[in-house]
Design a protein that fits this description.
The protein is of the alpha/beta class. It is built from 7 helices and 7 strands; from the N terminus they run E-H-E-H-E-H-E-H-E-H-E-H-H-E. It has helices at 16-27, 39-49, 66-79, 103-131, 151-171, 196-205, 214-225; strands at residues 7-10, 31-36, 56-60, 85-88, 134-139, 176-183, 236-239. Strand 2, helix 2 and strand 3 (56-60) form a beta-alpha-beta unit.
């Protein structure tokens, strides 16, 4: 196994990509903190990967709320005392063409996707600096480079890339690596509302002509979280079947 009781926090881990990340890190030897705004989803994920509950903790957490994040970290400290790995995966979409996008749609996506990443990272960095070790992995998107109807989402995902590179420069001296993964078209519940004709168009442009699976992202996370990547920081890794090269 790659990990030896490292404590990993995964946000937005109740389902989809986040749940796959939590499961893979657990199977590779981590103790897991499953955070999701939906407490029942967080509990279900933790129960599915660790029925005994000795090596996992499931918590409801709105990552956009400083108070909620602070309460979550108190619970994490009570059970595990430390944090070694943070995966900032929580994210939402509220799509609209820009001329129809409301301030509320803009602000809510910013609050969850970008401010949530800031708040979670702010909470773990002091712990990682103290122990001179840490791994932070941010889950961005190929939409960071622009996507029709997603001005708010694209702005947050591009912001995560800039934040990643800045943190990598600031935290490297403390043996903390910070990297960012850019998923492409991944087969999750979020795609269920996308018409098949649009998905077929995406597939026709991809060198690897299949939908990505949540496990594809989980495998990349495990690499960045492990000692195998100890000399890699500030890197963008598209996991998108070649979507960005067409």
């Amino acid at each position: 196994m790659r990990f030896h009781d490292d404590v990993a926090i995964v946000t937005g881990a109740g389902r989809g990509i986040g749940a796959a990340i939590a499961r893979q890190l657990f199977l590779e030897g981590c103790r897991i903190v499953v955070l999701d705004i939906d407490e029942s989803s967080a509990l279900a994920c933790a129960q599915s990967i660790d029925p005994a509950g000795h090596r996992s903790l499931a918590l409801s957490c709105d990552v956009s709320s400083k108070d909620t994040v602070a309460r979550a970290f108190l619970r994490i400290a009570e059970k595990f005392d430390t944090v070694d790995i943070l995966v900032n995966n929580a994210g939402i979409t509220q799509d609209a063409m820009f001329h129809k996008m409301t301030l509320e749609q803009w602000q809510r996506v910013i609050d969850v996707n970008l401010t949530g990443t800031f708040l979670m990272t702010s909470a773990v960095v002091p712990l990682m600096r103290e122990k001179k070790h840490g791994r932070i992995i941010n889950i961005s998107s190929t939409s960071a480079y622009g996507n029709v109807g997603q001005a708010n989402y694209a702005a947050t995902k591009a912001g995560m890339i800039g934040l990643t590179k800045t943190l990598a420069k600031e935290l490297g001296r403390h043996n903390i690596t910070v990297n960012v993964i850019e998923p492409g078209v991944i087969e999750t519940g979020m795609l269920k509302t996308v018409p098949q004709s649009i998905k077929d168009g995406w597939l026709s442009m991809m060198p690897i002509a299949r939908m990505g699976q949540p496990e594809d992202i989980a495998n990349a996370v495990c690499f960045f979280a492990s000692n195998e990547s100890s000399f890699i920081t500030g890197v963008e890794l598209p996991v998108c079947g070649g979507f960005l090269i067409v």
